[in-house]
Amino acid sequence: MSTTATAFDPQTLEGLLTDGGKVLTAPDDLAAYGCDWTRIYDPAPLAVVLPKSTEEVQAIVRYANEQHMALVPSGGRTGLSAGAVAANGEMVVAMDRMNRILDFNANDRLVQCEAGVVTEQLQQYADEQGLYYPVDFASAGSSELGGNIATNAGGIKVIRYGMTRDWVLGLKVVTGAGEILELNNGLEKNNTGYDLRQLFIGGEGTLGFITEATMKLARQPSNLTVMVLGLNDLSNTMDVLQSFRSKLDLTAYEFFSNEAIAHVQAHAEVPRPFETECPYYALLEFEATSEGVMEEAMALFEHCVEQEWVVDGVISQSEGQAEKLWQLRERISESIAPHTPYKNDLSVRISRVPEFLNEIHSVVSKEYPDFEIIWYGHIGDGNLHLNILKPADMEKQEFFKRCETVNDLVFEIVQRYEGSVSAEHGVGMVKKKYLGFTKSAEEIAVMKGIKKVFDPNGIMNPGKLIDSD
Ligand code: 2HG
Ligand code: ZN
């Protein structure tokens, strides 16, 4: 079917929005709502619609089915795989006005939210209740819950708390066929066959739109303490991880290269953690719940130094210091953004990370010796962010084209290591053509069959994740 509407009349659509939703068609709005943080594609939506209720979303989906109109869901648009890009005359369905926290129950530790609730808003709300929403990442101030769920967002605390999927106990969705489904109703246990909720989590809006979610909250962590350690050898990051993990429950185990720190220093004036310069750094975090835990952490640090795994290190003595040390990791992405990075978000089993990284590094640097390669990521989850920076004198399109030529080599390594071409950023438009490096043809065929069930006319976020046959 055609994914572009032929005769679109904003007033007809607005007439269907009986709860106060609205339609935008001004060029500035189209430009803003038509793209995410990927910045590879030029935004070209037909219009933007901002519904106020699930029933309005249902009316929009039914209208789109009648009109053969493609729909693109839009949350905070902080994605990095072009999952929320409208570059082909689609209608953007933006959840910004569905941003209310609807209900909270302290006994259940559940909070019911509309899809447009901003991640930080949920984190703050949980804090006010004396609880904790643990999914966290640098874009928490802009990203919206519906988008987090649709992309199964990960972030910096996955080693302890898992991905967004682990916190969703209920969903309200509008399917591509225009049906409203209420899935799982906040139940912790519900063993009644297929769990359709899980298909919408990480489904990238290709099956339907999430309009509400019931999220689980955790107890607040206490006295989070951060260590940054300098290492000479990448393989030692795994020795250090195993040592610390054997005695402490880590809430984070992150990694970044010396080149990454140099960019943060230049961009954000964040000081180095210590004088000694090392090729690699690990950042770990744990709850220092007692003096004993702190002593244990220091003993582990000394052990790692004795083994010559760690060259130098620093430990936070206050919340403020912990936050400063986190900036070394959390501000990398924004610091390299001016260099138009080409991004890959890869994962393998954690034991294989060092050899995997080294192999990819040598392939990319052999092919493009003049390109700067920046490595960082959630190494405790086996998740590495590979960013290749654009040389200042090279055209953006030319640069991306060259990076794509090396992708086949990179993804061949991913496939050989049985890893993933997208660990946490999703597939969207950017990684769609590489899906076969991680999923088998049979698995992709089943995914297409599932899409057909929920979205028979192929109007939901077409061109993302998989093509409907
Ligand atoms: C992070 O871990 C984000 O900082 C962004 O997932 C990664 O910019 C990137 O490549
Ligand atoms: Zn990340």
UniProtKB/TrEMBL annotation:
Keyword annotations: FAD, Flavoprotein, Metal-binding, Oxidoreductase, Zinc
Q: Which cofactor does it need?
A: FAD
Its catalytic activity?
(R)-2-hydroxyglutarate + A = 2-oxoglutarate + AH2
Q: What class of enzyme is it?
A: oxidoreductase
Highest taxon, organism lineage: Bacteria
The FAD-binding PCMH-type domain, residue ranges: 41-220
The molecular function GO annotations come to:
(R)-2-hydroxyglutarate dehydrogenase activity; FAD binding; metal ion binding
Task: Note the Gene3D superfamilies from the entry.
Answer: 3.30.465.10, 3.30.70.2190, 3.30.70.2740, Uridine Diphospho-n-acetylenolpyruvylglucosamine Reductase, domain 2, Vanillyl-alcohol Oxidase, Chain A, domain 4
The record's annotation in InterPro entries points to: FAD-bd_oxidored_4_C, FAD-bd_PCMH, FAD-bd_PCMH-like_sf, FAD-bd_PCMH_sub1, FAD-bd_PCMH_sub2, FAD-linked_Oxase-like_C, FAD-oxidored/transferase_4, Oxid_FAD_bind_N
- So what EC number does this one have? 1.1.99.39
Which PROSITE patterns does the protein's record reference? FAD_PCMH
The answer, when asked if Transmembrane helix is one of the entry's keywords, is: no
State whether keyword Flavoprotein applies.
yes
Q: Which GO terms describe its biological process?
A: respiratory electron transport chain
Tell me which family the UniProt entry assigns to this protein.
Belongs to the FAD-binding oxidoreductase/transferase type 4 family.
Complexes and interactors: Homodimer.
**Name of the protein this chain belongs to:** D-2-hydroxyglutarate dehydrogenase
